[in-house]
Design a protein that fits this description.
This protein is mainly alpha-helical. The protein contains 24 helices and 2 strands.
């Protein structure tokens, strides 16, 4: 019998390429804007060093995951294996810019110093990921799927879906039209002319509407002929140059860097583990240790070449698989981004395509991941999933308040927590519940799932873990340390004791199904 040879490219890879590729492209355009306009970095640094290094990292990441999917397809004899999506970690992109690079650039008056601090930040995180890769499989094994997918759904709804949805309704003629094109194809099964991918159709239609509106003086997509002409000045060939000296120069800021690098490295660890679980629920079981080790190693190579952004496995594997993606879309995306980054074409694309035409693709991914948590978990665990969402909604609410107050030149402390509470804004509650949201959602979801199953001993173990993680600032806090949120930590300890009491004294003979099916509520 001949050895099974997986199909390297399937028709569905075109859909996934345009969907995933535009997702990566949006993130690249956003980070380019942050580097140029927030950090005020010179174009020669952005287009000559950082973006080429970022392109190299993304190429290594996407081709590695295509290879890993190829191995799984050969091992299982299946042609429906879909590669894990990966790219720049979006939450970390903003953290490293606004928490590390911007303050250091401002303090020193030198954007290069900010860049060096960002490189060191990624350097530290890379080792957290690689070391944690050997612990993650154990965590994945003992944690209920409702907790893993529930906290992932929280990230998806709050930080993946909401912003694109808002952008769509701010420019509805483009946004809603493009969303309808995608919705009809990827959920409704509608095929467009000669099988043209829905993502490409949506972008083409959105771009056409934007430029027609510009010609008519309406300017719905913010397009400009002058901006497009100016974008060609950044066109040219640049390859990454080793930046090892810059990485170690950033160690002068190591005290500031460690405060966020370690907890966010753990965040990456848990998020990647959640995404591997999501892929497993969709039928593709990848080795957790190899995935996390690759994320750390690829990020390390990237930072040593000048890229200050961490690589991560993305939310969305079930979405790309549902639209027919396989092995080829991942590698093709990496090659495409490498070419765009090394030739300086990103600035031209950003001036040509309106972001609102791409936003519906991100909303689609958010919808799919949010629904997967409920579809792939036991029906009785639905309350646990809802609980796992809460920390992310709190984190999103706090972020919106902080950004709004910052734009007004003030902050929550200046306005006063009591004054905010009088108008229904419980800021302190948002800060505590939303701190370390991905770990918080996982722990709360796990406790609830085990309580639903009346496995009180395991629920107590997760409650004790919540107590320790909170005490050291990994949950329900904004920095690591000792005794960061002592009252919340004490509350978890009380819950642990109570659960142990239930394990020892509660009637374990009551059938779980009977408890879940009861329709009467005692008062």
């Amino acid at each position: 019998m001949s050895e099974f040879k997986p199909t390297l490219w399937r028709p569905g890879d075109w859909n996934a390429l345009f969907g995933f590729g535009t997702n990566i492209l949006v993130n690249m355009l956003v980070l380019t804007g942050l580097l140029r306009f927030v950090l005020q970095m010179p174009d020669e640094l952005v287009f000559g060093r950082i973006l080429p290094a970022t392109g190299l990292m993304l190429f290594l990441s996407t081709t590695y995951y295509a290879w890993l999917a190829h191995r799984l397809a050969k091992k299982t004899g299946r042609n429906d294996v879909c590669a894990l999506p990966s790219g720049i970690s979006v939450p970390h992109m903003f953290v490293v810019v606004f928490v590390i690079m911007l303050p250091i650039s401002g303090t020193t008056g030198d954007p290069v110093k900010g860049w060096e601090a960002g490189l060191t930040w990624v350097f530290v995180q890379s080792f957290v990921l690689m070391i944690g890769a050997f612990i993650a499989p154990v965590i994945r094994k003992i944690t209920p799927r409702a907790a893993l997918l529930g906290t992932l759904a929280g990230v998806s709804i709050a930080f993946i879906s909401l912003r694109p949805a808002l952008e769509m309704f701010m420019t509805p003629v483009i946004g809603i039209t493009c969303f309808a094109i995608i919705l009809l194809s990827w959920f409704g099964g509608v095929r467009y002319f000669k099988g043209i991918p829905a993502g490409l159709v949506a972008i083409a239609v959105g771009t056409a509407i934007a430029w027609i509106s510009t010609a008519a003086g309406l300017n719905w997509g913010g397009m400009s002929v002058d901006k497009l002409g100016a974008a060609f000045s950044n066109f040219g060939f640049s390859v990454p140059i080793p930046a090892v000296g810059h990485v170690f120069s950033g160690f002068e800021f190591i005290g500031i860097i460690l405060v966020t690098a370690i907890p966010f490295g753990i965040y990456d660890l848990v998020e990647a583990m959640d995404n591997v679980e999501s892929a497993s629920a969709a039928g593709d079981d990848f080795p957790t240790t190899k995935v996390l080790t690759a994320d750390g190693a690829v990020s390390l190579v990237g930072c040593l070449m000048g890229n200050p952004f961490i690589n991560a496995v993305y939310i969305g594997h079930p979405g790309w698989k549902a639209m027919g993606g396989g092995l080829g879309y991942s590698a093709a995306t990496g090659i495409t981004i490498l070419v765009l980054a090394w030739l300086g074409i990103l600035s031209i694309i950003s001036a040509l395509i309106p972001v609102v035409a791409i936003a519906p693709i991100l909303l689609y991914i958010g919808m799919l991941i949010g629904s997967q948590a409920f579809q792939e978990s036991p029906k009785s665990h639905a309350p646990a999933i809802v609980l796992a969402l809460m920390p992310h909604l709190a984190a999103w609410g706090k972020l919106m308040i902080d950004n709004a107050l910052g734009a007004a030149g003030t902050n929550a402390a200046t306005v006063g927590y009591e004054a905010m509470g009088q108008v229904g804004i419980l800021y302190e509650g948002l800060a505590v519940l939303g701190g370390g949201a991905i770990l918080g959602g996982l722990v709360l979801g796990a406790i609830a799932a085990f309580v639903i199953e009346r496995d009180f001993l395991k629920a107590a173990a997760f409650s004790l873990a919540g107590c320790l993680l909170t005490f050291f600032g990994f949950m329900h806090g904004e920095s690591i340390g000792i005794g960061e949120s002592p009252m919340v930590s004490a509350a978890y300890l009380v819950v642990t004791v109570w659960l142990l009491g239930c394990y020892r004294f509660a009637d374990a003979s009551a059938p779980v199904a009977d408890i879940h099916d009861t329709t009467e509520v005692s008062t």
